[in-house]
Amino acid sequence: MKIATYNVNGVNGRLKVLLRWLEEARPDVVALQELKGPDARFPVQEIERAGYGAVWHGQKSWNGVAILARDQEPLLTRKGLPGEPKDEQSRYIEAIVDGIVIGGLYLPNGNPYPGPKFDYKLRWLQRLQDYAAELLELDVPVILAGDFNVIPTELDVYKPERWRNDALFRAEVRESYRKLVGQGWADAVRELHPGERIYTFWDYFRNAYGRDAGLRLDHLLLSPGLAKRLTKAEVDKRVRGWEHTSDHAPVWIELSESAIKRRDD
DNA sequence: ATGTCACTACTTTAGTGA
């Protein structure tokens, strides 16, 4: 089973890129972020024609998240993260596909630091921690997938010094993410590629992709039982090189049907 | 500070968020 996360940076503006990638990669499940359109503008027909059922949580202009499932309809379980009822931003959607709870998220960017946007990001991270702990207590298979807007460690950024005071890399943000993962989640890409430089995002500015000046922002966190089924975790880096593409590349994992034996087990 | 995108409303160009 192949499960992906992809910040499309405008689901309508990038529809051709998304459809091309779906056809080439054929993921079973996809969490999408930055739809950048209201619910009514979600391109459900084109996505269905590509063979995917979908649930989505849109918003005019900004944010917006969706979950796609090949040849089936995802079973919607939640829109929005609990903890701040007045929060209007569409940043969390959750659905069950093949018995797995998929939490699709688009964490606030948080820039500029300091300021109210940064404070909102820290609150959102705390809300995510609280809710993620509840999910783990259910003891069911869960994947939290999305654009976390967090650079977890120095290995995940081309030039750490330049990003020290950026909301993606501030110490308190990394600390909050570290606590979240420490609840018992497995960062799938790191699990299979420890010590390797892997990026999922390259700025549009200054030929960042050409220089491989990237950041690792898009993550798939697996509940303990699912971590035992993890066989592959990759970034579809080539997609970032396509015309009219998103500034993020898709990230995907492969899960086996049952627990597998790995060296460190 | 800069750079480059998508999106929106509307003075089809300028704001804004990333």
From TrEMBL:
Keyword Metal-binding: yes
EC number: 3.1.11.2
Site feature Interaction with DNA substrate, where: 248
UniProt: Mg(2+) binding residues: 7, 34, 147, 149, 247-248
Annotated positions for site Transition state stabilizer: 149
GO terms of molecular function: DNA binding; double-stranded DNA 3'-5' DNA exonuclease activity; endonuclease activity; metal ion binding
Gene3D superfamilies: Endonuclease/exonuclease/phosphatase
Record: active site: 106, 147, 248
Residue ranges occupied by any Endonuclease/exonuclease/phosphatase domain in the UniProt entry: 4-248
Site note Important for catalytic activity, residues: 218
GO biological process, one term: DNA repair
Keywords, in A-Z order: Hydrolase, Magnesium, Manganese, Metal-binding
Cofactor(s) required for function per UniProt: Mg(2+); Mn(2+)
Sequence similarity: Belongs to the DNA repair enzymes AP/ExoA family.
Protein name: Exodeoxyribonuclease III
Record organism: Endobacterium cereale
Gene: xth
